Amino acid sequence: MLLSSRKAARLKESNEKYDELHGKMTILYRVLDKMYKNSEILLEDTKDQVKLKEQERKAIRASHSAMKNAMDIISGSGSKREMFDAALESIADDLANKVGEMERFMEMSSSFMDSVDLQNGVFEEQGLKMLEQWEKESTLMLLGDGKKRDSSETLDLNEPRKEREKIQRSGEGSEGYEGSFD
After folding, report:
1. CA angle, corner 154, sides to 149 and 157, nearest 5?
2. Cα-Cα-Cα-Cα dihedral of 57, 62, 65, 67, to 10°?
């Protein structure tokens, strides 16, 4: 009995300790469960931060590389400056060639244009002489009298054109021919 009472007392004490331990473990489980859930959120948040930092780093490195290349071009060092200068020189050469071709064409065509202008002047002068000769030698059918015109009635092509009213007042346009040659 003594042994059984001691055993019962130890079991009771042990159960109390287990009860206490169970309470502590329950609290610990709830704390760990919360930590687990929070750690998942923290993990996703950390992954997102790492991803953003990686993107920022890539952007910074790209902009730094571009800035460095620009500095190389500005300072005149590196093969990129040589490529830039070669491209600029090629553009300048192409422009000079095109301007030269246009100037050559203008030089070659100037003699042609001068000859065309000269021919037009000759033709114009010949036409004026023929018109004056015809005017002096012919009779005007429009006057209706069959007489030769005197020198005062000779057509002067350099004289400004008379107004229609002046022609009608003078009687020359009375037969309806005044609008025929406008």
Report:
1. 155
2. -100
Which pTM was predicted? 0.31
Q: For the stretch 33-64, what's the b/e string if a residue is b when 16 or more beta carbons lie within 10 angstroms of its beta carbon?
A: eeeeeeeeeeeeeeeeeeeeeeeeeeeeeeee
Is 135 strand, coil or helix?
helix
Helix (H, G, I), strand (E, B) or coil at 52: helix
Other CB atoms within 10 Å distance of the CB of residue 10: 10
3-state SS class at 179: coil
Predicted confidence (pLDDT) per residue in 129-171, tens digit = 887 777 777 655 544 454 555 555 565 666 665 544 454 455 5
CA distance 3 to 23: 30
Q: How far apart are CA 38 and CA 32, in angstroms?
A: 10
Domain boundaries, the chain: 8-77, 78-118
Q: H or E stretch including 91?
A: helix 79-137
| Residue 177 pLDDT > 70 | no
d(CA 10, CA 175): 154
